[in-house]
Design a protein that fits this description.
Rossmann fold; GMP Synthetase, Chain A, domain 3; eight-stranded mixed β-sheet; five-stranded mixed β-sheet; 25 strands; 35% helix; globular
Length: 559
């Protein structure tokens, strides 16, 4: 056992870490007055008192619908210490999705950040007794509307929730349609935090910069619970993590640890690193030769490392498969990245490595005290569905025994719906979603994610999905129209001056260029894939694809 705690619950752990690390910074906005562990402990107690005043009882459900902030963690730990079920909801859920969560969870209260209050406008709040503004703890709706939050108040009663009962209810936005309420226990997430620590040890001196939503279990377990267990510090952004917000924040915080999704680093590579190399004729030519390319990437990596604050030791990437070309850049750049694999249902981490032992396009071994296997592997390729078993596996889906039975084998194995393969050293590689797998006319497997990786590295492509439509393999591609427009203007200066007077002519020229690019892209793909994986039609996607919290495309919308 890698923890000395006999009870894996928050009422046992939070007082211990508050006492042990009392003067250290726990939670803070970047460049603002932080909460020390001692102050965080006091505020958790005050929120518990506040919940008692609202008559919220152990077992009741309370929604957290908020942007990341120090108070998010305070409310979360207060709920957990009282045995109240936390229902973290993703900030990008719309009113309709929030209504479904409210109805399904029968939540008694909502803690909401001021920035999201507009989404409450037309909601039916049948079970809700109180709505509280997360930023200030002001009661917005409720019978005791005049009730004030007292930051010096103390809890009246003692609570000791069981470690293996429902504690967190997570509604995944998912890529396969309707959300499901994933039931996790305190033991699930606490033990998973320790499992993650066995992959990458967290020190009390470490600073985390949080950029993913705390309502996603990836950021929740590994970016909040883990650092708090270890006495580390977590910093939050006031605004969305655009480059203009993130770069100054990284310079100020100088984080040792960050957790991201592939899309973030893929955008950095395609929008910053690659254009910088390609705009110069000499570096563009050198980029085509492997030894020179490695040198260029190493130089770019040094610059990128400084941009990230210069102290980064673990840049965790999870939530989706990392593009191979981008990963090769990270390896050549000696950037301290590492890949993890898991699902909300596994709290989330099930396999992974640290930055010192990565392998190209591989994830890593299973984490300690967790079993991962490939069920019924193909005798030739070794590929099959990934199954997971261990103390980090969920309790089931809320009010949905039928679907729970579909994914949980009788002996405790969770069927992930993901395809994977192990190498001889026990390293897992993720091949894609089982539901995304396309079976060709001759029975061979087509992995759309692999074709998409090829497409996404073609110039001017932002993102893509490959689907089967009426028996044909179709690529839906979203191009960078703004970049294309700049290129068209640059190619024809005299043409541009005339087009200022006739914008529809310019637009037509851009459309023609895009169609030419599409034909070139289809030829590019089909000369690089096997016969059964050739694209038979290419559709230009004018708008960005709709995405989940971890920036995966909601594929089911485009089938």
């Amino acid at each position: 056992m890698f923890t000395s705690y006999h009870q894996l619950n928050f009422p046992t752990i939070i007082p211990d870490v508050v006492s042990k690390y009392k003067d250290r910074i726990a939670l803070s906005f970047v460049d603002e007055e932080p909460l020390t562990y001692e102050q965080m402990g006091g505020k958790i107690g005050a929120v518990q008192n506040f919940l008692e005043e609202m008559n919220i009882k152990p077992g009741d459900r309370v929604i957290i619908f908020s942007q990341n902030m120090p108070n998010w963690g305070v409310v979360y730990f207060a709920l957990q210490c009282m045995g109240i079920v936390a229902v973290p909801v993703l900030p990008d859920f719309n009113s309709h999705e929030l209504q479904n969560v409210l109805n399904h969870s029968e939540a008694k209260a909502i803690f909401i950040s001021q920035s999201l209050e507009y989404k409450l406008a037309d909601l039916e709040k049948e079970f809700v007794r109180f709505i509280v503004r997360m930023d200030t703890f002001e009661v917005l709706e409720g019978k005791k509307i005049s009730m004030d939050f007292n930051e010096n108040a103390e809890i009246h009663s003692s609570y000791l929730p069981k470690e293996d009962e429902l504690a967190i209810l997570l509604y995944t936005s998912g890529t396969t349609g309707n959300s499901k309420g994933v039931m996790l226990s305190q033991k699930n997430v606490i033990i998973n935090a320790f499992q993650a620590d066995s992959v990458q040890t967290v020190l009390k001196e470490d600073r985390f910069l949080s950029v993913l939503p705390l309502s996603h279990t990836y950021e929740n377990t590994l970016g909040l619970i883990l650092p708090i267990l270890k006495g580390a510090s977590v910093y939050y952004l006031r605004k969305p993590p655009t480059a203009s917000v993130l770069i100054p924040a990284m310079k100020k915080v100088k984080p040792e640890i960050m957790l991201t999704v592939p899309m973030i680093i893929e955008k950095v590579y395609r929008n910053s690193i690659l254009p910088e190399i390609q705009k110069n004729a000499v570096t563009n030519t050198l980029h085509k030769f492997k030894p020179a390319r490695k040198l260029l990437y190493r130089l770019a990596g040094k610059k990128l490392y400084q941009t990230f604050g210069g102290r980064l030791k673990f840049f965790g990437i999870g939530g989706a498969k990392l593009d191979g070309q981008v990963e090769q850049f990270l390896r050549d750049a000696k950037f301290p990245y590492a890949v993890g694999y898991g699902l909300t249902e596994t709290s989330p981490l099930a396999a992974g490595s640290n930055a010192s032992m990565t392998k190209l396009q591989a994830i890593g071994p299973q984490v300690s005290q967790c079993e991962v296997k490939v069920h019924k592997p193909d005798p030739v390729t070794g590929e099959g569905e990934i199954w997971i078993k261990g103390p980090n596996v969920m309790l089931g889906y809320y009010k949905n025994e039928e679907v729970t039975k579909e994914v949980m084998a009788e002996d405790g194995w969770f069927k992930t719906g993901d395809l994977g393969v192990f190498d001889k050293k026990g390293w897992l590689t993720h091949k894609g979603r089982l539901k995304n797998l396309i079976v060709g006319s001759n029975g061979e497997n087509i992995y759309p994610e692999e074709i998409e990786s090829l497409i996404n590295n073609f110039r001017f492509v932002v993102e893509s999905i490959v689907v089967e439509k009426k028996g044909k393999l179709v690529a839906m591609v979203h191009f960078n129209r703004e970049e294309l427009e700049r290129r068209v203007k640059g190619m024809k200066a005299d043409f541009t001056s005339k087009m200022d007077e006739k914008m529809e002519g310019f637009s037509k020229k851009v459309e023609e260029t895009m169609n030419e690019l599409s034909a070139e892209l289809q030829h590019y793909i089909n000369t690089r894939v096997n016969k059964i994986s050739r694209i038979q039609a290419l559709i230009i996607q004018s708008e960005p694809f709709q995405k989940t919290a971890t920036k995966k495309i909601k594929r089911y919308l485009y089938y």
